[in-house]
């Protein structure tokens, strides 16, 4: 207890009074130092918080740009696939790469299954990649070019 004599009505001597003043000054000094430390930590945390907010905004912008780029590239790939499917529709079932109509499970409009055309790898009985389709077209083109040149 800091001032035990006050509770019992004790008057401090001059020396005790000076000691108490020194103790009180030391306590106020310690409080001021702690307040300065708290202020410095608060400012530091605020600064770090602002840096993190800026970094987060940059990451959000990067994500938006990447998403946009992905969507553009995905559309381009879908468009290229549609073009390739359009060009391969007349291929026979005996060719390595062709077009196959696959039924989807449900039509959202209740009209039964919808047919979806896919590039099809006839020899391996699976959907073909766009790369396989392009390689097939290039091979066919080279063969035709060679035949015409001879």
TrEMBL record:
List where this protein forms a coiled coil. Answer: 17-69
Its keywords, alphabetically, are:
Coiled coil
* Pfam families per UniProt: XH (PF03469)
Signal sequence, start to end: none
User: What superkingdom does the record give?
Assistant: Eukaryota
Q: What biological-process terms (Gene Ontology) are attached?
A: gene silencing by siRNA-directed DNA methylation
InterPro entries found in the cross-reference section: FDM1-5/IDN2 (IPR045177), FDM1-5/IDN2_XH (IPR005379)
Is the keyword tRNA-binding assigned to this protein?
Answer: no
Pinpoint the Factor of DNA methylation 1-5/IDN2 domain residues: 100-147
Q: Does the keyword Transmembrane apply?
A: no
PANTHER family (alphabetical): PROTEIN INVOLVED IN DE NOVO 2-RELATED (PTHR21596:SF65), RIBONUCLEASE P SUBUNIT P38 (PTHR21596)
Q: What is this protein called?
A: Factor of DNA methylation 1-5/IDN2 domain-containing protein
């Amino acid at each position: 207890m800091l001032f035990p004599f006050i509770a019992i009505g004790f008057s401090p001597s001059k020396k005790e009074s000076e000691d108490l003043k020194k103790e009180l000054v030391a306590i106020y000094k310690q409080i001021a130092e702690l307040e300065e430390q708290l202020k410095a930590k608060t400012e530091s945390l605020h600064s770090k918080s602002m840096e993190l907010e800026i970094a987060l905004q940059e990451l959000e912008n990067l994500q938006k740009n990447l998403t946009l780029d992905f969507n553009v590239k995905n559309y381009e790939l879908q468009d290229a696939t549609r073009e390739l499917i359009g060009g391969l529709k007349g291929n026979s079932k005996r060719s390595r790469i062709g077009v196959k109509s696959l039924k989807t499970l449900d039509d959202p409009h209740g009209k039964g299954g919808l047919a979806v055309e896919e590039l099809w790898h006839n020899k391996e009985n699976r959907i073909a990649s766009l790369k396989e389709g392009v390689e097939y077209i290039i091979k066919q083109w080279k063969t035709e070019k060679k035949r015409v040149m001879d």
